[in-house]
Design goal:
Elements (H helix, E strand, L loop, with lengths): L7 H4 L2 H23 L1 H21 L3 E9 L2 E3 L4 E3 L3 H23 L10 E3 L6 E9 L3 H89 L3 H65 L5 E2 L4 E2 L8 H35 L1
Antiparallel strand pairs: 1-5, 1-6, 1-7, 2-3, 4-5
Helix pairs in contact: 3-7, 4-5, 5-6
């Protein structure tokens, strides 16, 4: 006869049978207690749901109130730069402007006991600061007034910075315009000097022609004097003619030197000065154009939109509140059921004793 192979249960130690049995008994006891005290569970859950419904009906709808502030900008090296970093503006708004705006509103409305709070944040990678507030519709005007006051404080602070930047840029622009006019006057003087050099060149050319004619006549007279020289008086005349011819040659050499060398050098020098002047004028014109662009690109801080209320209410909906109250009621009901069962056992044990 073959023997049946031992099952897994035969290999279990005795204490494991007891634990499994106890777990099964405990689960059954829990279920029996819940069924026995189900009225407690239902009553507590019903009360919580009723309270949740009443709370949802009495809770006023809350709306989101918000506005966005675009930080003013100016022309930078390669792009537009904010007149202040968003982090600096956010710190000013959080630490100074919001408390000041709330205090001013409370001063203007002493009948109020509190003022709506406003929060500020910076969307990632932007030059915009967003103001947010949340409250019922009855506080809408207060939310809008406080947020508008914060916007006005930021605009006032940045307006001061913009005015300083504008005045500095206008001063630099006026200096550049004055320098451009000075360069234009200098160019006019250079051109006038060039014209005088042309007149001097014409005059020297005419003088050179006259000297050449005088030298030609002196040469002719010298030739006749040589042919007629027979005594000492004629020899003296010949010497005087030689001396005059020498002076004519020296004068002609001086005129040619000034006409062909000095005037050319002066003309080249003036031409270089005029070219340098023209380049300086172009640089000044470019500088003036850049300053004009900087003035035109000065953007003041502004609100992208006035403080507005969201079209839909925010926060948990009424159905969610009722659902949460039901879950809470079931949890409290279970606790009450077990507590009631505990009190019943205590009373039974006290009576038996």
């Amino acid at each position: 006869m073959t023997r049946n192979p031992p099952t897994q249960e035969h290999n279990l130690p005795p204490y494991m049978y007891d634990n499994a049995y106890e777990d099964e008994i405990n689960l059954v006891d829990i279920w029996l207690v819940l069924m026995k005290r189900r009225r407690y569970v239902a009553a507590v859950a019903g009360l919580c749901v009723l309270a949740g419904i009443l709370y949802a009906l009495m809770l006023p709808a809350k709306y989101q109130y918000s506005t966005s502030i675009e930080i003013g900008s100016r022309s930078g090296a390669a792009s537009l730069d904010g007149i202040e970093t968003p982090e600096t503006v956010l710190a000013k708004i959080t630490e100074s402007y919001i408390p000041l705006a709330r205090q001013d509103y409370l001063t203007q409305h002493p009948e109020l006991t509190g003022v709506p709070n406003v929060t500020a944040r910076i969307p990632k990678g932007s030059q915009i600061v967003v103001l947010n507030g949340k409250g019922p519709e009855t506080q809408g005007e207060a939310h809008k007034a406080v947020q508008q006051a914060v916007v006005d404080l930021v605009k006032k602070d940045h307006g001061r910075i913009i005015n300083v930047l504008r005045k500095e840029t206008e001063i630099r622009q006026n200096q550049a315009l004055a320098k451009l006019e000075e360069l234009k006057d200098s160019a006019t003087l250079i051109q006038a000097r060039e014209k005088r050099l042309v007149d001097i060149s014409v005059l020297l050319t005419s003088q050179a022609e006259g000297v050449r004619e005088d030298l030609a006549r002196a040469t002719s007279d010298r030739a006749r004097a040589i042919a007629e020289t027979k005594d000492e008086s004629r020899a003296l005349t010949l010497m005087m003619l030689e001396n005059g011819m020498q002076q004519y040659r020296q004068r002609l050499a001086q005129i040619d030197e000034r006409l062909k060398i000095k005037l050319v050098d002066q003309r080249d020098s003036l031409a270089k000065k005029l070219s340098d002047n023209n380049r300086s004028q172009l640089n000044q014109q470019d500088n003036i154009a850049k300053l004009k662009i900087q003035l035109n690109n000065l953007r003041e801080t502004r609100a992208l939109m006035p403080p507005m209320r969201s079209s839909e209410a925010t926060g948990p909906g009424k159905s969610l509140i009722v659902l949460l109250s039901l879950v809470l009621g079931l949890m409290l009901g279970v606790f009450v059921a077990f507590f009631a069962e505990f009190l019943a056992k205590v009373r039974n044990q006290s009576a038996a004793a």
